[in-house]
Amino acid sequence: MMCETTDGGPEQDIGADSTDAGGGGEDANEAELAQFSALLEDSAEDLYEHAPCGYLSTLMDGRIAKINTTLVDWLGYTRAQLLGRKRFADLLTMGGKLYHETHFAPLLAMQGQVSGIALELKAADGSRLPVLVTSQVKTGSDGQPMLIRTTVVDARDRRAYENELLRARRHAEQVGAQAEQARAEAEHARQAAEIEHARLRQVMAILQSSLLPPELPRVPGMEAAAYYHTASADQLGGDFYDLFALGQGQWGFFLGDVCGKGPQAAAITSLTRYTLRAAFQHASDPVAALDTLNTALHDRYSGADPRYCTAIAGTLSPHGGTLRVTVASGGHPPALLLRGDGAAEYLPTPGGLLVGIMPHPHFTTATTVLNPGDTMLLYTDGLTEARTADGPRYSEDHLHAFAQTLAPAGAQQTISVLTGLLESFGNGLDDDTALLALGNPAAHTDPESA
Amino acid sequence: MDAISRNNVTVSGPLDGPVVMLAHGFGCDQNMWRLVVPMLAERFRVVLFDYVGAGRSDPSAWDAQRYASLDGYAADVLDICADLDLSEVVFVGHSVSAMVGVLAAARRPDRFGKLVMVAPSPRYIDDPEAGYAGGFSAADIDELLESLDSNYLGWSAAMAPVIMGNPERPELGEELTNSFCATDPDMAAVFARTTFLSDSRGDLASVTVPTLVLECAQDVIAPRQVGAYVHAAIPGSRLITLNATGHCPQLSAPEATGAAIVEFAAAR
User: Fold this and answer.
1) What pLDDT, in 10s, does the model give residues B142-152?
2) A106/B32 Cβ within 8 A
3) Is the pLDDT of residue A374 over 90?
4) Is the Cβ of A95 closer than 8 Å to some Cβ of chain B?
5) Which of A38, A226, A404, B17 lies in the 20 to 30 Å Cα band around A53?
6) Could you say which of 3.40.250.10, 3.40.525.10, 3.60.40.10, 3.10.20.30 is the CATH number of the domain covering A213-439?
7) What is the ipTM of this complex?
8) Cβ contact (<8 Å) for A166 and B248?
9) Regions of chain B short of the pLDDT cut 50
10) Is residue B235 reached through a cis peptide bond, with omega within 30 degrees of 0 on the bond before it?
11) Nearest residue in chain B measured CA to CA from A155
12) CATH of the domain at B27
């Protein structure tokens, strides 16, 4: 790279090398040096013309005033075509001209020197020669700029290498952009899924509420309260309950649990609820109602996809300040009675079969009387099978003991205390749970009471 | 953020003098004006700045979308005018900045008193259908963008110490990598595209302030026919052809350029 040597030159380099190598025989070295100098002195013009790089001198307006043979040969013009006729910028590609005018020339004017700029020369035959260009302004003794000296180095290899680097960089940028795009798409999909999920939950909540009475009816001389716990907002539960008038002061009620979860269970729940209500309207008899439901489920879902539920259904009849209760159970946990005197007891309905599983089942009935201060609680096994904080499942025994400490309690109070109990289970409550409490208030304050 | 620091605004000359605002074009920064500033600062309040993406502007203010149109650069000019509360500004725009000045004056005529368009071009690419010769083809512009890329590798390392004039202190070059004419290549590419792919011919008619068109006798980027086009499109404008070569008369012919600006700016 002789051309890039500015101060000194090859002459000096050789001299320095000789001196370094010198031990003895300095005279011999000096003679050798003189010989070299003479040789090089003779060929200064030759060095300029045939240097391994291009030399070019232009006037300040860019017109070419002097050019060496090497560069003339590279360009394929005759010297006469160039001298005084072309400007340096004329040798560049159009893009190079723009770069020259916007970067190269301004910097040269401001700094007096620009070095190592990558440009492409356009040869006479239209071919392009990648070069590295260094220019320097030569000033006169008065400090005024006189001419521009330019060195042009063949940079084909270097440019090819740099192009590879640029290609690699662009590729890396492209890959990076693709990765970023993929990430953005994933994020977009995640957001869409989240929106979809929220929409689904909303649909579920609406569907779920359609399976339950919007609110319990006001019943004269009776206090009623209910609570429904949904274990998962992503799953429709299968628990159900209802309370409705049967005419002549009588009331019907039921509470149950369809096996399974999800849309299919919800369909059964809907069928179950409306079948029971219709059956009760036909005959105010809990056993007959469960029989009708059994027939409906058994006919519809027997075979490969049997569907069944547990349910407890009953009637309430006011009778001189008391409420007479008849219940029938199809495989459902027994009702719990909280007496006005502080006692608590189950109302046993043993041996009842699951509803829908057999063609001709037998359902167990039981009767009791709710005196003022008495409350009857119906519940699903979500309550009695919840995992407690200590580990073991909550059980009917636990519930019985709990009721003993709670009684006497009205329906509303019973539900609110049990709601607190359910909340205390936290994640241990892994199933849907329905609670329905029906009570004979201790003191009749309801103006509608008889 | 205030435009004063964002755009590296520097002010010189008498505080109560008429305002001359010098706007650089694509390729460098406010240093482009260094040879004419002393002459102007004798009687004018001279406002210099770097567009965001150039020189010592704040790189964190870069917004590829904003600066993908000349309106973004015009917004820089108007932000500076607002921060300095300038009016009756003589706006001197070099190259693409001449059109930036046209856009800024159209949006806020109350800020500007006169326009000086140095080597302007409202469209660089030829439009044969309209009989317009801008001097370049779309392929030429692509070639320029390639040139910018090619010089990305060697640019800062090779140029900076030289520019600083302290080759023996390479650490100064480090500092310069981010300052003098060596812009971030991505930002430069955006500015190049915005500049050379713009077509502002339709905006020339909006100019209502006294306008001076300063062109060079030999200019590849803004050839004579383009200067004539701009002159013809702005009613009442003056055209001066400087006996200068290249696209930057403020560097190649600073005395003539400075004198023309002073004479025009001072005229009643």
Assistant:
1) 887 777 766 65
2) yes
3) yes
4) yes
5) A38
6) 3.60.40.10
7) 0.83
8) no
9) 153-167, 169-180
10) no
11) B150
12) 3.40.50.1820
